[in-house]
Amino acid sequence: MTMENEMQSYSYEKTVKICGMEETEVRGKIHDLLTEQEKVVFTFFTTPGEVDIRISAKSEQEEEAKQRVKSVVRDLKIRLGSHIFTTSAKVTLAETIVELLKEQKMTITTVESCTGGMVSARLTDVAGVSEVFKQGFVTYSNKAKRKLIGVKKMTLKKYSAVSDQTAWEMARGGAALTDADVCISVTGYAGPETGAEDQPVGLVYIGCNVKGKIEVEEFHFSGDRRMIRELATVNALTLLRRCILENYQI
After folding, report:
1. What contacts 140, CB < 8 A, 6 or more positions away?
2. CA 147 – CA 113 distance, rounded (Å)
3. Which pLDDT belongs to residue 195?
4. What is the C-alpha separation between 78 and 32, in angstroms, rounded?
């Protein structure tokens, strides 16, 4: 056996988890890293709304392998910023949100239509969420939106249930009714039908209310009913996290 074969090889890896960006967008921002880092291996894992990058390196020196990976992770944090929600492979996006809510001593309520409770399910999957989770509403019908959350009848008639205005009122009403600091709302068309020609399947509005500051985003998702609901859920969590961070108090 040669001396070369007897040498021990050390490996080290770290996973960077990203939300709010497509894989093509991530690759575009780190293109030079992917091509220049010959001794580092990048492995991409993509799920609806999230991109995970596993960075790994091998070396005859353990510390050298670690430093190669850590250097790349630092570069990724600089380039991707708050889109990175964790560098722990087993931590979920929902877990980071619950932790943020706990840190800020804030409570949350969800108001959902097309996602049918999927957002609240993700949050309540997290152990210890009872410290921050107030209530989850599934207001699937227009009547439920009016009676349970206080969406105005005129709003639904003029703008429809799937609109910026309805998502805004859902986010406002959910927080007010439960005295929650934060409320996330989702309304959209998951298919197979929509309300009008100018409102296609995949049109989703997500609202986020953090201590009275309400933001609504419009999305156009593609895929089948299951995929659209999944994308709406992940993007709701992504918007929720961003809005909490924007109001973060040290």
Report:
1. 113, 116
2. 14
3. 59
4. 14
The predicted-structure confidence for 195-214, as pLDDT tens digits, reads as follows: 567 789 999 999 999 999 99
| Nearest CA-CA partner of 191 in 225, 218, 161 | 225
Average pLDDT, the chain: 94
Is there a contact between 136 and 109 (Cβ–Cβ < 8 Å)?
yes
List Cβ neighbours of 115 (8 Å cut-off, separation of 6 or more). Answer: 186, 229, 232, 233, 236
For the beta carbon of residue 69, count every other beta carbon within 10 angstroms: 20
Show the beta-strand stretches assigned E in the chain. 10-19, 40-47, 50-59, 84-86, 108-112, 133-138, 182-188, 203-210, 213-220
CB 239 within 8 A of CB 171: no
On the question of pLDDT at 6 being above 60, the answer is no
pLDDT in tens, 140-156: 999 999 999 999 999 99
Mean pLDDT of 17-45: 94
User: Residue 114 corresponds to which amino acid?
Assistant: C
- What integer pLDDT is reported at residue 2 of this predicted model? 45
DSSP 134-168: EEEEE--SHHHIIIII---HHHHHHH-SSSHHHHH
CA distance linking residue 167 with residue 172, whole number of Å: 9
CA distance 120 to 221: 20
Provide CB contacts within 8 A for 148, sequence distance 6+.
137, 139, 177
